[in-house]
Amino acid sequence: MEQLKTIGRELAIGSHGGWGQSKEFLDLVKSIGEARSKAEEDRIILREVESLRRRIAEPDVPRRKMKEYIIRLVYAEMLGHDASFGYIHAVKMTHDDALPLKRTGYLAVTLFLSEDHDLIILIVNTIQKDLRSDNYLVVCAALAAVCKLINEETIPAVLPQVVELLTHPKEAVRKKAVMALHRFYQRSPASVSHLVSNFRKRLCDNDPGVMGATLCPLFDLICADVNSYKDLVISFVGILKQVAERRLPKTYDYHQMAAPFIQIKLLKILALLGNGDKQASGHMYNVLGDIFRKCEQSSNIGNAVLYESICCVSSIHPNAKLLEAAAEATSKFLKSDSHNLKYMGVDALGRLIRINPDIAEEHQLAVIDCLEDPDDTLKRKTFELLYKMTKSTNVEVIVGRMIEYMINISDNHYKTEIASRCVELAEQFAPTNEWFIQTMNKVFEHAGDLVNVRVAHNLMRLIAEGFGEDDEGAESQLRSSAVDSYLRILGEPKLPSLFLQVICWVLGEYGTADGKYPSAYIIGKLCDVTEALLCDDTVKAYAISAILKICAFEIAEGRKVEMLPECQSLIDELSTSHSTDLQQRAYELQALLCLESRAVESVMPLDASCEDIEIDKNLTFLKDFVQQSIENGATPYIPESERSGMSNVSNFKSQYQHEASSHMLRFEAYELPRPSPAHVIPQVSVPTPIADLFPVPETTCNSETSQASKLPSVAGASSAAHGIKLHLDGVQRRWGRPTYSSSSGPSSTTSTEKTTNGVTHIDGVGSQSRDKLNESRRQQPEVSAEKQKLAASLFGGSAGKTEKKATSTQRAPKGNTRNAERPGAARSRSPETSKEKAAPSVPDLLDLGEPNPTSTTIVDPFKQLEGLVGPTPMPSPLDNSVKTSGFETPDLMAAAYTDLPPSGSSSGSLSSTTRDMYSVDKTSNTATSVPSIKKGPFPQDSLRKDARARQVGVTPTGNNPNLFKDLLG
Amino acid sequence: MIRAVIVMNTQGKPRLLKFYEFQPPEKQHELTRSVFAVLSGRPDNVSNFVEADAIFGPGTRLVYKHLATLYFVFVFDSCENELAMLDLIQVLVETLDRCFKNVCELDIVFNFNKMHTILDEIIFGGQVLETSSERVLKAVEEISRLEKSSSSVSFVPKSVSGRFGR
User: DSSP E strands: which ranges in A373-519?
Assistant: First the structure.
């Protein structure tokens, strides 16, 4: 048995000649394969690494042995273990003259070392020498190392040799030299800027491969600077034409496409060059039309070229004919069964609607299908498309969908992204205030702390100010609906901190405003918030300030506030808190409770959040005081900038610097403590409720904000003013409708200034425009309510269709009245139309007749298949990927080849093995087992592999035992 | 530009890692793990594309192919075309298959330096170099032929071979 094992091993090694590794390596792989846990695997590799460390350091290791050690090190490092002790040996190996060793050395160093590693300096010399070698393989290996290991500083050392290689007789070398030069450009554009002309020259290389390689650097160069390459448009178009007309040698064909990768690169370049350039685009129309006409749609790569053409058409100056062709190709993608093509279709649609939004209409159905698809990638792509398509008319449906999706994913990165998109759309297109608040609530509730702080401030601001309407009733209704919703939400466990802040603020400001809830109830709720397990200081600060406000309102109203026990304990707790901020708030509350009602009213006026605080930056009101002090003999104030020369003890910094320069020694211990970075808790203070509306998270606006207004002090005032101003503009503009923001852009700050104590004084012009706005808004909710139902029914069903909706909404602004007249009619009609739409689309799928991958199954020449596939109508043809992975694929290649069109040269060149495996896959696909075919035509091969597998004992996966069974037969 | 090529088995064990921008080993390991986490969570009959900006930074995408016990993963940025990348995986796999005759995971485990050689002929410095598996194969064969012919030299002690080399 032992002997048999050895034989098997030798077979395994011998089968691939010089590539094989020794017995030890096989043993290592075997034991790793058998490891039952991660810990065991780690132990094995650690042991291996230890033994390598020992052996590699021995003197006179035979070079062949050393090669193997290095490879084993690479392997260990791939599995995540440190092999740095061997780097130097890998470097040494690159100095070797024997090709296999040199190549192994280069391979190892490119995998081990970063371009800034200290050892690179030892390799540069070798690389220089090897670049001049007669053996082109050595040159290639050196070029590969150049790409990976040369950094900005070492580029000049090898640059001359690389440039020389651009005219090397071997095309493989020329190609790699171009790419190495490209790499230099990526690393440091300045270092090769004088060599850019070389790329242009190589574009005319008579080897198409070299020309193709040149396109990569040119693409980068054109990305950086389009205008200096406009002259190349004609050449690029010419090349593309030649390629598309198959004038390249046959060897450049790939799956019956002529040099598709070159075509793709060229199309990308043309898209850049033609963007916004009518004249340049004019040259391209012809060849693009040709590509659309000729493009092979049965193969993957053909579709890749087609997709790239669509991208190109959507980027260059629009041409009606080409757009039509692009739209047609896109619709084919969307109707395809392959998820990959659908994905490309959705992406292409997103590009095309930028030029012509109507194109989306006929694909609404397909888009909805993609949205319902279980494929996450497709879904995200579709959301991206919807995001681009959002208008004020469909925002509710789209944002609703997004939120629904957001709730269900756990990927924080994407959650953040989609949440910010929801917020952006809601801010831009919100049809009603209520909807906006509801949407925001949902976003906060589910995405929580992933949401930008700015969003929370916007929401608070909206609730405080409304949309800038002068309709007090609507505003207070908005507030009370917000309060209602927040009291309801507070019942839920684990709310995110940011959301709790908003809730606390709103409850503090408006909790008792409409008299619906008694103050004690709200205070109790707020106390509950602070008692929650994960309540942070910021939320506590918000909560206690809210309690303070409610108490103040109560006292101002002349009512007696009786302290709840939990509230009292909260105050006690916070007044001994580690956070001085919380302490201050608690003491402020205590102080306020002792004041009489008139004082409280002036300290804490009701609904004062909209007040603008006038800040006197120059502190003119202190002039008298200063004057008086100076007269009394005080020293005048010297600004800090002028103070530096004085040897003042308090001016520690300058003194320190002085010292440092004179002694030349730096003692780290004496370094100035850095100012603590952006502190977390925004100050909310008694007399300035506005400060907690805009708690600017910058250090400049810290606790001084409160003092600034209480007893205006020197330092904080200006920064506070700056901070608040910063938030005031921009916010408003972002919010409102486009009309509002554009009309009242500059005056947005003044409008807030005018709002004092909730009473708005508005000048004639402003109110006029606002009236108009109100009018339109009042109409819109009716229309949108109508549409919402429509959309819900449309989007909900699988046969949903927003197309109708889109067209009707386009009409909406023009003829609101007409629309409002017959909402019933529209509603009753829509289901019918949607059904009508849905019905033909199903046969559409079958009638398509596009030679998609399924047709290859039908054309498949194998008899078993003809019998199986022929009679079955196959209403929903199986997807490509279903074939590959829906069933346990017996062999790697069997799965791989399913994507190939089995006709033509490519299938002819397949080995009979793969063809056979191909058929196996097909049969297993149709779920009938034909055991007789399962035997490969290379029984020796299979046997050998099996023997190897068995003796090595590596069963790489438990999931797929079939791998070896199939090989065995 | 292609950022990385990862081949791993369905249990997440790396079989080949090639990053075209240097990543320290720990980072490589972490990236592989997160890629595996994404891929293993995907059902069978879905698209081969995944947006990877959470793992590899903004704008990156990955294309993968699940074949038997292996995942072939290409990570790339917006300069490449997804479908084309999918075909590049096809080229790689096709070449491996021709090279090893009925390739399976074991071949890749035991010959991962050959695998690197093949990959280097297809992708060079993050750019597509060659898409014809025939020509890749020819290049690789030539390399192994030359290596074999020169490997006889390596039996000779270093001092002697050093003289030969010059």
Answer: none
| Residue A425, pLDDT above cutoff 80 | yes
Encode burial over B70-104: b for 16+ CB neighbours within 10 A, e otherwise: bbbbbbbbebbbbbbbbbbbbbbbbbbbbbbbbbb
Domain count, chain B: 1
Cβ(A244)–Cβ(A263) below 8 Å: yes
A216–chain B Cβ distance below 8 A for any pair: yes
Q: Which domain holds residue B132?
A: 2-152
DSSP letter string over A244-270?
Answer: HTT-S-GGGEETTEESHHHHHHHHHHH
Which letter does DSSP use for residue A86 in this model? Answer: G
Give A885 to chain B, closest Cα distance, Å: 5
Looking at residue A665, its pLDDT comes to 54
What was the pLDDT predicted at A640? 74
Q: Which amino acid is at B104?
A: C
B116 assigned to some structural domain:
yes
Q: Which residue in the set B14, B113, B161 is minimally distant from A98, CB to CB?
A: B161
Interface touch A340/B101, C-beta < 8 Å: no
Distance of CA A736 to the CA centre of its chain: 27
Measured between CA atoms, the residue of chain B closest to residue A259 is B131
Give A 860-879 residues with CB within 8 A of chain B.
879
Residue B37 lies in a domain: yes
Q: Can you give the pTM of this predicted structure?
A: 0.65
Coil, helix or strand at residue A124:
helix
Q: Taking each helix axis from N to C terminus, what angle separates A364-372 and A823-847, rounded to the nearest 10 degrees?
A: 80
Which CATH number is B82's domain given?
A: 3.30.450.60
> How close, in Å, is residue B8 to chain A by CA atoms?
11
Rg (CA), chain B: 18
A378 vs B: CB within 8 A: yes
Within a domain: B164: no
Quote the tokens at residue A459: 């929401």
Which helix H or strand E contains A575, and what residues bound it? helix A565-575
Please tell me if residue A605 touches chain B, with a CB cutoff of 8 Å: no
Contacts of residue A782, Cβ cutoff 8 Å, sequence gap at least 6: A820
Among the listed residues B119, B6, B85, B9, the one whose alpha carbon sits nearest the alpha carbon of residue A956: B9
Q: What is the mean pLDDT of each run of 10 residues along chain B (166 residues)?
A: 91 88 88 91 86 87 90 91 90 89 81 86 88 86 80 45 41
Answer whether residue B20 is part of any domain: yes
What backbone phi and psi angles, to 5 degrees, belong to A319? -135, 125
* Cα–Cα distance measured from residue B94 to residue B134, given in angstroms and rounded to the nearest whole number: 9
Q: What are phi and psi of A619, to 5 degrees?
A: 55, 45
* Chain A residue with Cα closest to B43: A375
CB contacts of B102 in chain A (<8 Å) are: 891-893, 913-914, 917, 936, 938, 941-942, 945, 967
